Amino acid sequence: MVAGCCTNEVTLNVSVHRLWKAAVCEDHIHMPKIIPEYFASAELVGDGEAGSTKTFHFTPAAGPMTYVKDHVEVLDHGSHTRKYKAVEGGHLGRTLKSHSFEVKFEAAGADSCVVKTKIEYDTIGDAPLPEEEVQKMRDSPARMMKAVEAYLIANPGVCA
C-alpha cells in the first residue's frame, strides 16, 4: 500500500453561498442535471448532514466505474467545509484501498469564491498511482466546480 495526497484550488465567479448549496448540500440533485453525460443519477440516504451517504451512478462515459457511495464525515456550514470518504464503488477495490476528500469553499468577493480540494488515498498495491491518474484525480473536482459555476451563472435563480 502506498499513501498519496493531491490538492487543487480553483477560483469561481459565483458566491460561496450559491456554490456551497449547489455543489455540496444539493449535489445529489444538481450533478445529474449539470453533467448528465457523466452522472446518470444520485441518491441521498439521510438528511445530507454528517453521517449521511450519497450514491452517484455514472454513465458509460465514466469508464469502468458504475457508481460511488460517499459517506459524509463532516459538513460544516459555518466554515463551508465538507469531508467525506468513498465507502463503495469508484476506484475502491480496483486501484485504491481508501479514498477521502476535503473540500473548503472560501469567499473571495461578493460573487466569487475559491474552492480548495484535498484528496488522500491509499493504493491497493505497493506501487504509487501513475502520475496521469493522480493528475486526473487532481483535476476532476475543478472541472466539476467549473460546470456548476457555468450552470449557476446561466440560471441565476438556482440556489439564490
**So what's the overall shape?**
globular
Low-confidence stretches: none
Main CATH class: Alpha Beta
Order of helices and strands: EHHEEEEEEH
Radius of gyration: 15 Å
Most strands sheet = 7 strands, antiparallel
CATH topology value: Alpha-D-Glucose-1,6-Bisphosphate, Chain A, domain 4
Helix fraction by DSSP (H/I, runs of at least 4): 25-40%
Mean pLDDT: 96
Give the N-terminus to C-terminus distance in angstroms: 44 Å
Give, in spatial order, the strands making up the sheet with the most strands: 1-7-6-5-4-3-2
Would you kindly provide a written description of the structure presented here, covering whatever features stand out?
The protein has 160 residues and is α+β, with helices and mostly antiparallel strands. It has one domain: START domain (Alpha-D-Glucose-1,6-Bisphosphate, Chain A, domain 4). It has three helices and seven strands; from the N terminus they run E-H-H-E-E-E-E-E-E-H. It has helices at 16-25, 27-34, 131-154; strands at 3-12, 39-45, 53-58, 67-76, 81-89, 96-109, 112-123. Strands 1-7-6-5-4-3-2 form a seven-stranded antiparallel sheet. A hairpin with a 6-residue loop joins strand 5 and strand 6 (96-109). Helix 1 crosses helix 2 (27-34) and helix 1 crosses helix 3. It is globular, with a radius of gyration of 15 Å. It starts with a strand and ends in a 6-residue tail after the last helix.
